[in-house]
Design goal:
Elements: E1 5-11, E2 25-31, H1 38-47, E3 51-56, E4 62-66, E5 75-79, E6 82-89, E7 94-98, H2 102-113, E8 117-121, E9 137-139, H3 143-148, E10 156-160, H4 165-175, E11 182-185, H5 189-201, H6 206-209, E12 212-213, H7 225-242
Parallel strand pairs: 7-8, 7-10, 8-9, 10-11, 11-12
Antiparallel strand pairs: 1-2, 3-4, 3-6, 5-6
Length: about 250
């Protein structure tokens, strides 16, 4: 408990690397207790992220509100004698990939470097093996069953990569009804046109189907599995940060 405190530190150029800075300067650190707010913050993040926590550094009074987008940044604002610290609290992202293919292996590496939790779903055990995917949540259930059993939030991205309608379509039917912030499918424009037809026949509207990013990924002329993975992950983060959804 107690009031928050701002601690000031001067960092020399020689000390900069030790504290993770590229050069010396001044570092101001806000120390406050937010333990009593954890349940509410967690609930707000689960409903719609990000969450903005504003703290009056003199009085300790705080205010929680929903952020407008994921490009907002934490900052310290001084108005006269009043100092307000605005902290952006982001929900943890998770990526669900349908299909344990070569592109998936490359996507996993990128996601892990971004601290994004990854789940790979593929009932084909020849592909979905711990030898190929040693450090992630690997599920060999059918995609619709696996997705139906998990929570899909506004911090979830789902990408289908199998090229097999028997696996991809049931997954899409689940996630198109969810709050997932990014939905993408691999395949050519011709392949996607056929996919649109099947989903339309299943009763999905044009607006719902338009949420699918297809062909998946930014157009960077990608050819190799690693390049395709990079393009998909870049598009996913662009949608998350900039809100450019379809």
């Amino acid at each position: 408990g107690g009031k928050p405190h701002i601690l000031d530190f001067s960092v020399s150029n020689d000390q900069a690397w030790e504290v993770g800075l590229s050069c010396g300067g001044r570092v101001r650190v806000l120390v406050e207790s937010i333990a009593e707010k954890y349940p509410l913050i967690d609930k707000m993040l689960g409903a719609m992220g990000p969450v903005i926590l504003k703290t009056d550094c003199a009085t300790g009074e705080t205010m929680l509100e929903f952020g407008q987008n994921n490009s907002e940044k934490s900052k310290l604002t001084e108005v006269g004698d009043q100092i307000i610290f605005t902290q952006i609290l982001e929900q943890p992202l998770d990526l669900v990939i349908i299909g344990a293919v070569h592109i998936t292996q490359a996507m996993v590496k990128i996601a892990q470097s971004l601290d994004i939790a990854v789940t790979v779903i593929d009932p084909r055990t020849a592909f979905a093996s711990k030898i190929r995917f040693p450090d992630i949540d690997l599920c060999t259930d059918w995609p619709d069953e696996a997705l139906d059993a998990r929570q899909i939030t506004s911090g979830t991205a789902v990408v289908t990569l199998t090229h097999d309608p028997k696996l991809d379509d049931p997954a899409l039917e689940i996630v198109l009804k969810s709050d997932a912030f990014y939905i993408a499918s691999l395949g050519s424009r011709k392949t996607h046109a056929a996919r649109v037809g099947r989903l339309t026949d299943r009763g999905f509207t044009a607006d719902q189907i338009a949420r699918i990013h297809a062909p998946a990924g930014l157009d960077i002329g990608a050819k190799t599995p690693a390049e395709i993975a990079l393009s998909v992950m870049a598009e996913m983060m662009s949608v998350y940060r900039n809100g450019h959804n379809r």
